[in-house]
Design brief:
Layout (H helix, E strand, L loop, with lengths): L2 E9 L9 E9 L4 E8 L8 H7 L3 H5 L4 H11 L3 E5 L2 H14 L8 E3 H8 L8 H8 L9 H20 L15 H5 L6 E6 L5 E7 L2 H9 L5 H9 L2 E6 L3 H15 L2 H10 L2 E7 L5 E7 L8 E3 L2 H15 L16 H4 L13 H12 L9 E6 L5 E8 L2 E9 H4 L3 H7 L1 E2 L4 H13 L3 E4 L1
Parallel strand pairs: 1-4, 4-5
Antiparallel strand pairs: 1-2, 2-3, 6-7, 6-8, 9-10, 9-11, 12-13, 12-16, 13-14, 14-15
Length: 449
């Protein structure tokens, strides 16, 4: 069985001849599952243009101490040996990598597979085949767009979905689906946005998901033979429930709430598959707030989630440099004494108790405020379940209060209707992150009160 190297890179520009790589992510897939990975920033040995910094978030300070390409070249050759290189517009990534090796006098050569071409073949008629829009249409999450690890993981999920469709092409019309879900039930599923629920024969809830096209997303589950867990879940499905939201934001919030409330078995398994790491904050015995990237902890919400430990470390390094946080207290420097930044006067000495904990903690709070809202009280308005209503998400005192649906004709500028329609929901760091990320990536109508 062939092995696949799903690759994504970030660069200083578009020309392989003139520009350089700033970040690389490689996920090795054995045809069944993810088996190895390599993620690293790369020192391009040239300045990163401002427009690229704005798009990727990778700045010159971040790559200053990163390895140069020749220092990771051997690792790239070893990890991709006998692999098919997979990428979304793979010619771009492959061309840059080949050119980097060419400058070292090495001829890097591997067969390639382009997920854009494969997508056009297997799922024709989509409005866009760009990675961001296609993944959004297919319900594939990407929490780190325009970063190598985030885009590579999204490409991996797309690749797995395309392989399952390709292998089961004869059963796309529902023949061969190995579950008790009736054809009529599947065919009646809406091609609109909402949350879907899988139940087994005992009517136990086993999985919750969201999609902008419920019918197609459920169908992809029922045609997925790629993983043992996927096949196991597919065979366990006996019924499907649907909750329409119209709004993708409401679907994301409802999905998060339902998973936390019911903890379906296959959601727990899936979470460990793709987003294994989280950023957690806690106080030590001296009262200092510590940050640590670690594997996700059940029943505890992280400040942020990552697809790999390296992705998390890179993010914390950026916070440490921006807010002058202690490397030791951020889990970046393992020492019994002072951290390296203290030695070069970039840390105020929290690592050795020199800086007051209250002063240090205030900077940590400022860093984590990146995940809070600029405004404290507002409604987010989005499309509703039909043309006569709008979805409403309420934030009050910087906390998520809940969501609801308001009749457009009844509102007429009366904010009380927005308050009255809200269904109370639990606030946590994850839902605030969902809202803030959605506001950043989408044009939203915000009403302040």
């Amino acid at each position: 069985m062939p092995r696949y190297a799903i690759i994504d890179i970030e660069t200083t520009g578009l020309s392989p001849a003139a520009e350089k790589i700033t970040e690389i992510a490689i996920f090795i897939h054995d045809g069944q599952q993810l088996v190895d990975e390599f993620v690293s920033l790369i020192n391009p040995e040239k300045k990163i243009p401002y427009r690229i910094i704005q798009m990727t978030g990778i700045n010159n300070q971040m790559v200053e101490q990163a390895p140069k390409f020749y220092e990771v070249a051997k690792k790239i050759v070893e990890i991709t040996k006998d692999c098919i290189i997979v990428g979304h517009n793979v010619r771009f990534d492959y061309g840059f990598i080949r050119n980097e090796f060419k400058s070292l006098g090495y001829d890097f050569h591997s067969p390639t597979l382009d997920t854009i071409k494969l997508s056009r073949k297997l799922i024709p008629g989509r409005p866009s085949y760009g990675l961001g829009k296609l993944c959004k249409d297919l319900g594939i999450e990407n929490t780190a767009r325009h970063r190598a690890a985030g885009d590579a993981m999204a490409t991996l999920k797309l690749f797995e979905l395309l392989r399952s469709i390709e292998e089961d092409l004869d059963s796309v019309n529902v023949r061969g689906v190995q579950s008790d879900v009736s054809k009529s039930l599947l065919k009646d599923l809406p091609k609109t946005t909402g949350v879907y629920y899988f139940y087994n024969k005992n009517q136990d809830l086993i999985y919750v998901g969201k999609s902008v096209n419920i019918h197609d997303r459920v169908l992809s589950h029922l045609n997925n033979n790629l993983h043992k867990k996927a096949v196991e879940m597919k065979e366990a499905i006996a019924d499907v429930g649907v909750e329409l939201t119209g709004s993708e934001l409401v679907a994301l919030l409802l999905e998060s709430s339902e998973i936390k409330k019911h903890q379906p078995f296959y959601n727990r398994a899936q979470r460990r598959t793709f987003f294994n790491y989280g950023l957690y904050d806690f106080k030590d015995e001296k009262g200092y707030i510590n940050l640590k990237v670690m594997r996700l902890i059940d029943n505890r919400s992280p400040v942020y989630t990552y697809s790999s430990a390296q992705e998390g470390r890179t993010h914390v390094e950026r916070l440490s440099e921006t807010y002058q946080l202690c490397q030791k207290l951020c889990g970046l420097y393992d020492t019994q004494g002072a951290c390296f930044h203290y030695q070069i006067h970039q840390c105020e000495g929290a690592c050795i108790g020199k800086e007051d904990s209250e002063a240090y903690n205030s900077r940590v709070i400022d860093a984590l405020d990146n995940y809070h809202f600029e405004q404290q009280n507002f409604f987010l308005l989005d499309v509703g379940r039909n043309e006569r209503e709008r979805s409403v998400v309420k934030v009050e005192h910087g906390r998520y209060i809940g969501y609801g649906f308001a009749d457009i004709e009844l509102n007429n500028g009366n904010l009380q209707n927005f308050h009255d329609c809200i269904q109370p929901m639990k606030d946590n760091k994850e839902v605030r992150q969902i809202i803030k990320s959605f506001m950043k990536k989408n044009q939203t109508e915000t009403v302040f009160y």
